[in-house]
């Protein structure tokens, strides 16, 4: 459970603004290591900003219908509030879908892009039906217990992951609000293909993927890297879907390398 005073946006460092968008159904706290390390030893290489997205962590869900466009517009409103015209955006999995929706709706505000363990293609019919099943079930039960079991069984983390990290991920999933889980599932199910938008971008990009990611596999990462005009692909060995948590050092190094390419 989040306390009423928990921040909805975490921030650290000064320098190039970098907004990190968390995965489903985790809160912004998943970026703890990147918040600390991406700004670099003197803390002035990047201003890292990690918001809880609509309904997750301490952020209210509100009453808008499910749509990743709404999540992307939330982000534009956040940049306005922070007085930022442009920022580098980084998203892992669902965070990547939101970053691609932002690229479609607000391309002029994008200074660079990190797409981690995510995909630009749409869901299959079976995946869409499964999302609706999960959405209906968590709402009916008023609990995300089913999601915890199913997500962990999907090999979110590579085999042999430190049990402490596995527990931390379970605990983060357990904090998710069933209404936010249903909202996000329905929003993700409706997302369009983003390969054309990626091809139209002319900003530096980093595509990062865990070698053992079975949720959004290497083939999807390759497709995004090929569509983008200026992308570097980092494949992190022996790591699953939550690469930022499983291999924080390598992930952070890839993000810092991208920041050096951003003008
Ligand atoms: C995520 O980690 O954000 C999810 O796996 C995204 C999805 O369900 O497609």
Automatic annotation (TrEMBL):
Keywords in alphabetical order: Hydrolase
GO MF term (any one): hydrolase activity
Statement: the UniProt record of this protein carries the keyword Lyase: no
Superkingdom assignment: Bacteria
Pfam families listed in its UniProt record: Abhydrolase_6
Gene Ontology cellular component terms for the protein in this record: membrane
Domain AB hydrolase-1: 18-253
Coiled coil: none
The UniProt record lists the keyword Hydrolase: yes
Matches recorded under PANTHER family: AB HYDROLASE SUPERFAMILY PROTEIN YCLE, MONOACYLGLYCEROL LIPASE
Protein name, as recorded: Putative peptidase S33 family protein
Origin species: Kitasatospora setae (strain ATCC 33774 / DSM 43861 / JCM 3304 / KCC A-0304 / NBRC 14216 / KM-6054) (Streptomyces setae)
Phylogenetic lineage: Bacteria, Bacillati, Actinomycetota, Actinomycetes, Kitasatosporales
